[in-house]
Amino acid sequence: MLNESICYRDGKLFCDDVPIADIVTETGTPVYIYSKRRTLDNLKHIQTAFAALNPHIHYSAKANANLAVLGAIIGAGAGVDAVSAGEIHRALLAGAAAEEIVFAGVGKTADELTYALEQSVGWINVENMGEMKLIDTIASRQNRPPARVALRFNPDVTADTHPNIATGHGGAKFGLSAEVIRDILARQAEYPNIQIEGIHIHIGSQLHNTAATQQAVEATLELIAPYPAIRTVNIGGGLPVAYSPEEHIPDWETFASALTPLLMGYTVMLEPGRSIIADAGILVASTLYVKEQAGQSFLITDASIAELIRPALYEAHHEIVPVKEPSTVSTQPYHVVGPVCETTDVLGRGVRLPKMEPGDLVAVLTAGAYGMVMASNYNQRPRPPEVVVLEDGQSWQIARRRETWDDLTRYEL
To answer: For residues 286-295, b (16+ Cβ closer than 10 Å) or e, as one string?
Structure first.
């Protein structure tokens, strides 16, 4: 949705103090644009909301791994939550200290774990007993202190979110049951090259109430109560953002007030991603054609499922607005679609817009998270550029150039 950074002024859509149309003149469309100012304000907001717990915040790089974005967040004092060796590599390139990186993920390979241990990452979140054995074996070959790990607990709690992004119920692939965790803790001597110091939970993304999170934290604290050596609780991410004015979500202060009384006295880690970057980013597209068919109006744009897969993958809603503020309140519904040869290539259905013409620009809002990181070259489409408007609000830079046709074939033999 529109906010202090993504807003209309004098009939034009701005990112901070820069007119979107001015950026598009130089970059073309489609293009992702991020506000560094909004990104850092969101981080500060979360830090303030949870201040009583003094949490160690690790930004979830899977939400948006652009190096300029990562560098800004790291520079503001956050660590990084990585779910692959590639994300660890990016975090280090962006300036993260190795000890401020948490390595998570349900299927870490031996090569990835070797790399993580060689880099001396701060934490590894363990998801199965086989992984424990593999970490111990790899660590035994290295002349290093024991690997510090947290055990990821699956509390069998169903989060109030889309089922495709719920991770804490018993049928999910993520985490360890209470029984398995107790077994591991009873046999710690079998893992001499591992130091178990924490417990990790993450029941899902875009959580719509605090009850399930509170229930999961309570179950976690009950589980670790007999183990005084475990004093670090990583409560994951999941802090929600609103994708439409009608979406009712608890604010971050509500989450903090629900969890703070439970977690006082523990070292707390928090892994926000979407909540930091989502509403700081937009995807801008140009209208190619307006097509009337079967009593419906189709706004065919040059952005597609290849650039933003969330609507097709999660039935996700994004507000879509014209870059030029309408001079009239008169609007009509459009199905905003892309050029890719898939029926699901739809960015929004029944989107109310003023009368649109070819060349008119639209902005897909709240697209900073799980947008470009999930983009593909489907239909041999070069991925779009990414632009960052700097913290001064007036200057901007291309943080990733647009791919070319040559890029699409560069690695083929």
So the answer is: bbbeeeeeee
| DSSP secondary structure string for all residues of 68-95 | HHHHHHHHTT-EEEESSHHHHHHHHHTT
Catalytic residue from among 7, 93, 264, 341: 341
7 assigned to active site:
no
CATH no. for 36-274: 3.20.20.10
Amino acid identity at 63: A
Q: Identify the helix (H) or strand (E) that includes residue 60.
A: strand 56-60
Express each pLDDT in 4-19 by its tens digit. 999 999 999 999 999 9
Domain with CATH 2.40.37.10 in the chain: 6-35+278-409
pLDDT at 386: 98
Tokens 């607990």 correspond to 153
Residue of 405, 407, 367, 404 whose CA lies nearest to 387: 367
Average pLDDT for 277-296 = 97
Distant-in-sequence, close-in-space partners of 81: CB < 8 Å, separation ≥ 6: 58, 59, 60, 61, 62, 101, 102, 104, 237, 271, 273
pTM reported for the whole predicted model: 0.94
Q: Is 328's pLDDT higher than 60? A: yes
**Integer Cα distance of 175 and 203 in angstroms:** 10
Question: What's the 3-state SS for 99-162?
Answer: HHEEECCCCCCHHHHHHHHHHCCCEEEECCHHHHHHHHHHHHCCCCCCEEEEEEECCCCCCCCC
At residue 172, the pLDDT reads 60
C-alpha span between 20 and 329 (Å, rounded) = 22
Tell which residue, 169, 177, 120, 124, has the closest CA to residue 153: 177
Q: Is 358 helix (H, G, I), strand (E, B) or coil?
A: coil
Closest C-alpha among 311, 199, 215 to residue 259: 215
- Provide DSSP, 302-356: S--TTT--HHHHH-----EEESBPPSSS--EEEEEE-SSS-TT-EEEEEEEES--
Q: Nearest-CA neighbor of 219 among 254, 180, 260, 178?
A: 178
Domain with CATH 3.20.20.10 in the chain: 36-274
- As assigned by CATH, the class of the 6-35+278-409 domain is mainly beta
Concatenated DSSP letters of 371-406: SGGG---GGGPPPPPEEEE-TTSS-EEEEEPPP-HH
Higher pLDDT, 351 or 329: 351
